[in-house]
Design a protein that fits this description.
Blueprint (H helix, E strand, L loop, with lengths): L7 H28 L1 E2 L2 E9 L2 E6 L3 E6 L13 E7 L2 E7 H4 L15 E5 L17 E5 L1 E8 L3 H5 L12 E5 L10 E4 L1 H8 L2
Parallel strand pairs: 3-11, 6-8
Antiparallel strand pairs: 1-2, 2-3, 2-9, 4-7, 5-6, 7-8, 10-11
Length: about 200
């Protein structure tokens, strides 16, 4: 921004520049939110936990990393494996299988297998707040299989718990596989609902 003179015209120019930047930021945010969604479906990151496959919305994923050792937290919620330090932040690591009430398929932190799926901080509205602080989170999974587009589910947004009768309120639908393109079938996860249920 170039220097402006003080006075009514200078203040007006600064205000116009600020408004223009705010409009651009809002437009970019809208475009980013719609990037993973199209007329034909929503992109999901498909992860394996044991023999089961789960899809997390790609827009909720910040990064994927190899599994690393976690520091256990005594007295923590059952789904919490522990804490790891990532890029100067302390991140809580949840077992996706435990969070869904399935047999524990969390990878052994001492082995070379498994992945951490780090979530974006935009999911903070689903987490409990302690004086406005939000704990960054990651899911521990056995493997990340890839990105698959699945048809958008209106049931997930309608507020119906377990619309397909999958036996889990955090599941918002089922995406059947397609043998023609080798696409796997998977259970679609409603992340805000899952985090509200798992975290105290």
């Amino acid at each position: 921004m170039e220097a402006t003179s003080s006075g009514p015209k200078g203040h007006q120019r600064v205000r116009m520049d600020r408004d223009l930047r705010a409009e651009r930021a809002a437009a970019l945010a809208r475009r980013g939110a719609a990037a993973g969604e199209s007329e034909t479906g929503v992109d999901h990151l498909v992860c394996a936990c044991g023999s089961e496959r789960y899809g997390l919305p790609v827009t909720a994923v910040a990064q994927i990393l190899p599994m690393r050792p976690c520091t256990p937290m005594p007295g923590a919620v059952p789904a919490l494996i522990g804490l790891v330090a990532l890029s100067g932040r302390i991140v809580g690591v949840l077992s996706l299988a435990r969070a869904l009430g399935r047999p524990d398929a969390a990878p052994d932190p001492e082995s070379d297998g498994g992945h951490l799926v780090v979530l974006r901080s935009a999911l903070s509205h689903a987490q409990p707040h302690h004086q406005g602080l939000v704990q960054p989170l990651a899911f521990a999974v056995d493997r990340v299989l890839g990105i698959v587009r699945a048809a958008g589910s209106s049931a997930a947004s309608s507020g119906i718990a377990d619309p397909d009768g999958l036996g889990n309120e955090a599941a918002s639908g089922y995406a059947p596989g397609a043998t023609s393109d080798g696409r796997p079938d998977f259970v679609v996860i409603d992340l805000p609902r899952l985090l509200r249920r798992v975290l105290p």
